[in-house]
Amino acid sequence: MSNKKIDLTIEEYVEMHKKGMSDSEIAKAKGITNQQLYSWKYFRKGHIRRALEQEAQQEIASTLEESETQVTSQETIVTEKTQPNSAEEDDKGIEWLKREAIHAHKLLTEKEQECEEKQHMLDEVLTRNEELHKEVLVLESEIARLKKLVQELTNQKERYSDTTFENERELRALRMYALHKLQKDVYGV
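Request: output the structure for the sequence above.
Response:
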């Protein structure tokens, strides 16, 4: 893995994520590997979570402002249309405003639930990402251990090969000696 500095801020990541870009697309856009991005995110997960929460709160606030603006503009229209001397029309206007307030409250509640669901999903993704990161670290250490074991076994095999070669040479010499001694004892030469 390259040790080059990753040119990515938390704000850039949140903005790209908000645009719907996946982590793979973000990594590709920034010219880094997925693993580098995962490591970068792992060490900044708290900051990223807070930034995403702020984005969600801003979205809720803007939705609430839009709802209030709609209610205010509709109140203005109602006020312009209603006559101050008509109590029945005032009651209708009040009922209409109540319904609009209830509707705006429902929209706000739905948005809050949606944000909570997204936060829960984000927490699950970050937890899974952390688990995978730990698993990668374990596997990397296991790979390093196995490479060391392979090197030790290779060295041991080389020592055994050298020993076997020397033993075969000694065995040939002993056979030659035994054959020569046998010929001398048998033929007396």
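DSSP finds five helices and no strands in the chain.
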